[in-house]
Design brief:
Blueprint (H helix, E strand, L loop, with lengths): L3 E6 L7 H16 L5 E6 L12 E4 L7 H19 L3 E4 L11 E5 L11 H6 L1 H12 L10 E4 L2 H10 L7 E3 L21 E5 L9 H13 L5 E5 L7 H9 L5 E3 L5 H10 L2 E4 L8 H5 L6 E5 L2 H7 L5 E4 L4 H12 L17 E2 L3 H9 L4
Parallel strand pairs: 1-2, 1-4, 2-3, 4-5, 5-6, 6-7, 7-14, 8-9, 8-11, 9-10, 11-12, 12-13
Helix pairs in contact: 6-11
GO molecular function: glycosyltransferase activity
Keywords: Glycosyltransferase, Transferase
Pfam families: Glycos_transf_1 (PF00534)
């Protein structure tokens, strides 16, 4: 009988970077470790992972009904699962540490809410996110020290968690997301339109700070600058917050284009003239790294996650994340090709282990108790 690896991710059902992370993890396990281990994945619905083979999916279709039910799974139901399968490794990919028995326990923390401030205005603008933020900040970290390893995407987040929860640095693994070798269709014709295209790829969460972009675009419109288009990768119908954004953007050169695939995202990167990234908090901010391959301008919020992810890229300008006037000035400078770039690499010093890719992550995890 093969030893068992359990991956828990039943709370993740929205199309987002988190769901992509789970898919990439399961794909690696399927292709590289399914001969030596039995892989079991606890998921919302297996149809979210249509291309994954050699993995036994256990569905929790009621996981999105109520947060109390999700807590029941984490801290009561999963104990029974671990008793049944006796896993060698239990890896939670959704920030929380379930109450389970396993030879090796690990958690992947990629929720920026742990570091961000819980703002009362979130309750009114996006009640579901306020509830999630509360759980992420006060409930999910409860048993964090029971893990053999804690996986994060940045040194910044690892240092924060180590200090706040008094966890030894040697328990942490820094695993930056892998850049995709995406097979997309490059544009062959030269751009002929005079429209300057800004792209903001982000999901419909209030901390993504779309409002600052909308205010900046309105300011530009009032100055008569109309040769622009801004693309948001949300439909504007996802939730109360998204609908409020669509209403605020009425009459402005802002297009809501819905969630896009990785292939489509790279095509948008190539079409765009400049990347906008005003998000208040991220565990990484993958577009900030992916967009660098196209050697174009980035306008990013001047916060620690962005500084670390952008690194020493030389075509970036920063702005205070809520300063829409500064953002509007930078957007106008970008359009006029007068943008003054800044270099602000801030990679915190750390004693944590760094892993490049799932291969190195699982090599560390599976050898934890040897």
């Amino acid at each position: 009988m093969k030893p068992v690896i359990v991956i828990s991710a039943e709370r993740l059902f929205m199309k987002s970077g988190a769901l992509i992370l789970v898919n990439d993890c399961l794909k690696f396990l399927s292709e590289n470790l399914s001969q030596q281990f039995e892989i079991k994945a606890l998921v919302f619905k297996k149809e979210l992972y249509p291309d994954i083979k050699n993995v036994t999916f256990i569905e929790y279709p009621n996981a999105r009904r109520h947060f109390l039910l999700r807590l029941y799974y984490e801290y009561f139901q999963f104990k029974k699962v671990s008793t049944k399968y006796h896993p060698y490794l239990w890896l939670s990919l959704q920030d929380s540490t379930p109450s389970v028995n396993a030879a090796i326990r690990a958690v992947y923390i990629h929720n920026p809410a742990l570091m961000g401030k819980l703002k009362l205005k979130y309750l009114f603008r996006q009640p579901s996110y306020f509830a999630y933020h509360t759980l992420a900040k006060y409930i999910y970290p409860l048993f964090i020290r029971k893990n053999n390893h804690i996986i994060v995407q940045q040194a910044m987040l690892g240092n924060f968690l180590a200090k706040k929860y008094k966890v030894s640095h040697d328990k942490f693994i820094i695993a930056p997301p892998e850049l995709s070798n995406t097979d997309y269709s490059p544009l062959v014709e030269n751009k002929t339109s005079d429209t300057f295209l800004f792209l903001y790829p982000a999901t419909a969460f209030v901390y993504k700070n779309h409002d600052t972009v909308i205010k900046a675009v309105r300011l530009l419109a009032n100055k008569g600058i109309n040769n622009i288009e801004i693309l948001f990768t949300i439909s504007g119908n996802e939730n109360k917050y998204a609908r409020s954004l669509r209403a605020k953007a009425e009459g402005l050169k802002i297009t809501f284009i819905n969630f896009v695939s990785k292939k489509e995202m790279y095509e948008l990167y190539e079409r765009s003239d400049c990347l906008l990234f005003p998000s208040l908090a991220e565990s990484w901010g993958l577009p900030l790294r992916e967009f660098q391959a196209f050697n174009k301008s980035i306008l990013a919020a001047d916060v620690l996650y962005a500084n670390e992810t952008i690194g020493d890229y030389n075509k970036v300008a920063y702005f205070p994340p809520s300063d829409y006037r500064k953002l509007a000035t930078l957007m106008e400078d970008a359009i006029k090709k007068q943008l003054a770039y800044q270099k602000k690499s801030k990679t915190p010093a750390t004693l944590m282990t760094t892993a490049n890719g799932w291969d190195e992550v699982f090599r560390i995890l599976l050898n934890s108790n040897k």
